[in-house]
Amino acid sequence: MIALPCLVIVPLVGGLLAWIGGRKWPGTRVPWIASLATLCVMTAVLLDVTIRAIGRPGPWLAHFSAPWIPSLGITLRADMDGLSLVLLWLTGVLSFICVLLASRDETQRPGLFQFLLLTTISGVNGVFIATDLFLFLFFWELMLVPMYILIVLWGHEAREAAAIKFFLYTQGGGLLMMLSILGLVLLHYRHTGVLTFDYFALAGTAMSGRASILLMLGFFIAFAVKLPVVPLHVWLPDTHTQAPTAGSVLLAGILLKTGGYGLIRFVVLLFPDATAQITPLAMVLGVVGILYGAWLSLVQTDLKRLIAYSSVSHLGFVLLGVFSGSTLGIEGAVMQMVAHGLSTGALFAIAGSLQDNLHTRDMRRMGGLWGVLPHLSATGLFFAFASLGLPGMANFVGEFLVLLAVWHVSPVIAVLGAFGLVLSAVYSLTMVGRVFMGTRSSDAPRLPDFGFRQMTVFGLTMAVVVLLGLYPRPVLDLVHPTRPDVVSVLSQSAGGNGPG
Amino acid sequence: MMPTFSALPPSVVVLSLGTMVLMLAITIKRSEIIDAVLTLLTLLVALAVLPMGAAPSALFAVDDWHRFSSALIILSSIGVLAMSWRDPTVREAHAPDEFYLLLLMSALGAVLMTAGRNDITFFIGLETLSLSLLGLIGYRQHRIEAGEAAMKYVVLSGVSSAILVFGFALSYAETGSLVFAAPHALHPVEPLLAAMATVLVMTGMFFKLSAVPFHTWLADVLEGTSIPVAALLSVVSKIGLFAAMLRYFAGFDLMTPGSVSDEVTAVALLSMIGGNLLAIGQTDLKRMLAGSSIAHIGYLMVALLAPGAFGLGSAGFYLAAYAAATIGAFAIMEAVSPNHTHLNSLQGLFRTRPALALGMAVMMASLAGIPPAVGFFAKVYVAVAGVSAHRDLLLAGLIVGSVMGLFYYLRVVRVMLMPATDEVSTGRIAAPGNAVLISALALVTLVLGVYPSLLIPRNPIHLGADVEAATLPVSTQTAIR
Fold first, then answer.
1. B324: domain range?
2. CB contact under 8 A, B381 and A72
3. pLDDT score recorded for residue B481
4. B417 and chain A: CB distance < 8 Å anywhere?
């Protein structure tokens, strides 16, 4: 099946075309249109994959495999299950938000901008489908570079420090993961004499408790940096604040989700025993993240920083859900990832728009925007409500399911986590009050409100958030992550070698 | 061919003949074009005859490892040749002819080193290389910094050669043989003497490889020389020495803890951290690359300390990746501004000369080990070797070093992304040879990064018959004496 590699190749090629177009016809909208067209093609491919997947018998919905580095047992192997599919769709939707809203206004070197954006998306897509561990690592590292350049070139005042912080943290985590991958591969090699990086083959590796914990930790730290888990979240507030709007949306909406995805796919499913052992620690870290992030959000005056810290808080629920040890928890975690991606992505887009107009992110200098910018303010209000977990919206479903799952494991943690919801109501409403309500100073200039384009995009996003909030069943059914010992029917015909 | 010559590696024969022809040509008519063409031809022929075999002998090991590392050396020399063609700094004071002669001789020395199976053949190769490098470093003799660099190099090179020879002497006293291998491998009678001999030989090699703590000369020397010579110093001479070092330890059990493996481990760790620390603080590109090259020698030693299939394979791959990226970086510096190698000279390069900037970014990504450049796979490969040998401490060093390395590799990229200064570069077009070199290296770096299996031989590289060398009949050994 060629569709899976297309998900990686299409954005890459489209990005190159956008870049070339931008150089060839400077001052036009060619790169933007090329980028949009690329996303349309990508969505079409995704749609194709989805439609084909509907009739599939197995949990694995698509498969691709080709030789790559045979002497080290590395193949170009990609498989897609429901979890990947949901996250790929999230990526698709958010990329449209990025390109439609955020990046049209990047006037400096728009071609390069679109190229970097699409390369990042290409890497993220690769991460979501790769089932060869080397290939996964390749994509994992690949998506960092374009993001780094995006921040360095188009970021705000302290961009350079923020960009390097982002890179060092994630790269450090990635290198630890590299060691874990190699350790796992060589352990498998020692036992079986087969050198392979295949996810399915490695899942059956027999190992001692200590070895499995060590190997698992390498993966865990890499994903914990990305998710982020307190205390490895240090890079996040700075990076999100300094990144250009599209960068913030991409970071919060998608890049962080690769951490959650990795935790499910490569920690919980690959090392079930070791996961059980660190569950208490992970739970505590999760709840600390929820409360700490929420607490810091309360005192922020910088709008983007507030949203960034709220991300730390919301993604604590993902950690809780993933480590709750139940399907319910994982369903909740994925729902929370999707909901957070949509709502926080939208909030960052709104914050970016405000900054473009007001030239400040300081909430003390905002206020009373409702009268001036009714559309923008209403949108902001909606997503603030979504983000605080108002029932009827996707975030509520995610948080509720996670808390339910955690309650069976540890009521104390569940209660503490629920406090996070209270705090999130406080900071979200404070934000709404400070930014949109109140009185506006009379000498403020007139500001352009959201027009048709923005309202369409945000309207559709709102519809998705509400739809998922009211009828989450289809997504929840899809996201049961597939255990690696369930080998794809698709790959068996191609000579797949699961451990059985 | 006479039987005496049939044992010589064919490339050594070609390179020696080429050197003589070039010398003759210079005496007849001084012409840079003739010199360059002759040098290029010699190198190409030497490359072409690499697959040929040679009669087995106690002096040379004409094996896969020799072929692989010699191919790298010759290709790198061709790269340096392309870089120095029309380079103003090379011949600002002097006729350029001897530059090519010395270049050819240094390639000869390095190739000889990779094949040396005997202390004497190795030492001849090493000295050929060192002396030609000395000539190259001091080539711009009117420049005070060139004199300083040459002086530094000659003193330290001399000292390290002396240490090395002393080590050989001890080794001879212990084993009664001049086989180029760590004496431990030859069943020592006197373990202390054997260990001392090994440590001294290693120290001598570390000096030349500029591993920490014997690294202090490298940054100064690179700064004082022209860019092509700096590339030669940090690539060709290091490949030759590292290849020889691998051969030296081929029969030695580095896995059992002992003074020797401890020393190598310590030097490797120090090099990774020290090299990166040195590079972080630099604002001069040549000094920065000196630090980077020290750190890479440290990473390479992880492969050295992980004997077995992975160790040798990853060492070879890493050397290739390192050589391509380092020569590429120097070539781009040469194309941007041959005389001014401050970091500032790259400022705004993405705007003024985007192709060069992109090339530099690829090279930096490769050195930093970021995909899709080849350095990423090289680093993973070396880490595979390290993990397979349980070198936990070294792997930790590799990670810390890599993260530190990001600082300065990314800084180069960042400077290039910055807006150009007012004094926009003159728009000097890269010399054709250099342009070809840069594009070829960028292409190689990217293609190998995506398809590394192109450079991984189907069968693992063979490191000669070192066991056979260790058990050579005494008659041949005495014959050598």
1. 260-450
2. yes
3. 35
4. yes
